[in-house]
Amino acid sequence: MDAATKEKVQETVLEILRTADMQKMTEYNVRTLAGENLGIDLSESSSKKFVRQIVESFLHEQQQQNDAADEAEQEEEEEEEEEEEESNKRRSDGKEYDDDGDLIICRLSEKRRVTIQDFKGKTLVSIREYYKKDGKFLPTSKGISLTAEQWSSFYKNVPAIEKAIEKMEERLS
Questions:
Q1: What are the backbone dihedrals phi and psi of residue 25, each rounded to the nearest 5 degrees, phi first?
Q2: CA 21, CA 28: separation in Å to the nearest integer?
Q3: Topology (CATH level 3) of domain 92-172
């Protein structure tokens, strides 16, 4: 088979494959249709081998495209899930909640937060470090949780703490 004929066979086979129902189409049917369309006999061994190479190459390309589409779809689904998780963390009251449902009052840094949580029926103010695992921030043991009474006592003494900090800074300067 000369180069021009091979090119015509390849174009014809690819056109048949692009429009065919791939669940029903066989290599034999492709070869027969291409031979009929071109008016040539493709039943000899070298022609069969050539058509088989075209079909296999086409199927391989289709598989790669499907894999890429599946991967893109999976990435899109993961992004949507992350967005949904973020929106679920912000409830209708506009406040932000962590994965455990604790109210995030503020972020002191990337890894430190002040949260309000309910623990065994008691409301606690928790100042804690967090770490990231599998895309979620989880609390560490580094931190402190104060009951409402303890928080109130601490809060009343904040001015005294601020004065002490100012005096220390004056001594250091």
A1: -75, 135
A2: 14
A3: Transcriptional Co-activator pc4; Chain A (2.30.31)
Residue ranges per structural domain of the chain: 3-82, 92-172
Strand order across the 136-147 sheet: 103-107, 112-119, 122-133, 136-147
DSSP, collapsed to helix, strand or coil, labels residue 95 as coil
Q: What is the pTM of this model?
A: 0.46
CA angle 21, 26, 28 (to 5 degrees): 135
Q: For residue range 77-109, what is the model confidence (pLDDT) as tens digits? A: 877 777 666 655 566 667 888 878 889 999 999
Which DSSP helix (H) or strand (E) runs through 73? helix 45-89
14 vs 16: CA distance, rounded Å: 5
Quick: pLDDT tens for 99-142.
788 899 999 998 999 999 998 999 999 999 999 888 888 899 99
